[in-house]
Write a structure and sequence with these properties.
alpha+beta, Alpha-Beta Plaits, elongated, 2 helices, two-stranded antiparallel ribbon, 108 residues
């Protein structure tokens, strides 16, 4: 299994969640976050906003579904055809073990 963490623009989160749901990824964790990327925030006049609001979406998928889930997120989260600075980032990491708390059972 693979854990996919996607940091996306707040205005894109609804579209991304809908796309994931329609693609069959129903279980999603959503967390509001703030931070900055390579552009080091946003400067408007004399004011620098170095922590911008984003949304962190977390899903766990089977290994074979990883590429499809990532492309689904990218397609829904990208601004325009070519994308723009601040569209977000996706991180993928292996899931070693997972447990369902209510049953106390280990997932495969």
């Amino acid at each position: 299994m693979q854990m996919i963490r996607a940091i996306v623009r707040p205005e894109k989160v609804g579209k991304v969640m809908k796309a994931l749901f329609e693609a069959g990824y129903i279980a999603i964790t959503r967390i509001p976050v703030a931070g900055r990327g390579k552009q080091r925030g946003l400067k408007v006049g004399d004011i620098t906003y170095d922590e911008l609001p984003k949304e962190l979406l977390i899903i766990v998928v089977q290994d074979d579904d990883k590429d499809f889930a990532i492309s689904t997120i990218i397609e829904a989260a990208r601004t325009g055809e070519k994308g723009a600075f601040g569209d977000g980032k996706i991180f993928v990491s292996p899931v070693i073990e997972a447990y369902t708390i209510s049953r106390g059972s280990k997932e495969l």
